[in-house]
Amino acid sequence: MSEDGKICLIKDLKPGCKNLNLVFIVIDISKPTKTKDGHEIRTVRVADKSGSVNMSVWDDCGSQMQCGDIIRFSKGYAQVWKNQLTLYVGRIGAMEKIGEFCMLFSELPNVSDINQEFIQQNKQLLEKKAGEANQTVPPPPPPPSNDAVKTSPSLPARFTPQRTVVTEKNDPRLLKRQNSDVKLPLPSDPRQRLPQTVNTVSTTPVLSSSIKQPQLNVSRDP
Q1: DSSP class of residue 218?
Q2: What is the DSSP letter of 145?
Q3: Whole-angstrom Cα distance, residue 49 to residue 31?
């Protein structure tokens, strides 16, 4: 069991450890298997600088993980499943993606390899729990709740990248474009619209007085 806020190393994991806080990188994700209830379970291999371990994740937590994700794991626990030490997030645990790729890790030792000491320790734990609860078979690990995956201010939930919103404050070109695209609305009543300039031919009648009449030369007429 780890203290509140203290980061554990993978090499120190043992059966029955609770309230575990770790930081690791995802190095391998297996194909999902479905339960009778329709849940998807994936075995994810994670590692830190001290070694690697298998982690069991349910439903969306596993489908949204990718190799290279760096995750902060909190309030989880470890137990032996099918003779292999396995890490679980549980109902009160949480996982938070804090980065990608840039982390020093070692695949060895793999603490999920079959270890007779771990198997014996797990057997003793199961016998103790069975005596307390009057049962012989422990229940399967519960799926994580919807709040199992949390987010940091820089990375949103569900392990999706943050989108940068471009506004006129950080891109002045957008402001110019918006100003150029502004159009004044036309009035609905055509009588309110401004008259358009049309070149027309003047139809003002010409007064007869302005027309010069031909004059007769009296001296030449017979």
Answers
A1: G
A2: P
A3: 25
Asked if 69 and 159 touch (Cβ cutoff 8 Å), the reply is yes
Structure-block tokens of residue 59: 């439903």
What does the alpha-carbon distance between residue 49 and residue 109 come to, in Å, rounded to a whole number?
10
Q: Which pLDDT tens digit goes with each residue over 46-103?
A: 999 999 999 999 888 888 899 999 999 999 999 888 888 999 988 888 999 999 988 9
Sketch the domain layout of the chain as residue ranges.
10-158
Class of domain 10-158: mainly beta
Q: Report pTM.
A: 0.55
Structure tokens at 174: 């957008």
Strands 84-88 and 51-58: parallel
Using CA atoms, how far apart are residues 134 and 56, in angstroms rounded to an integer? 27
In the three-class reduction of DSSP (H, G, I as helix; E, B as strand; rest coil), residue 25 is classed as strand
C-alpha 219/C-alpha 16 separation (Å) is 145
Structure tokens at 156: 């949103």
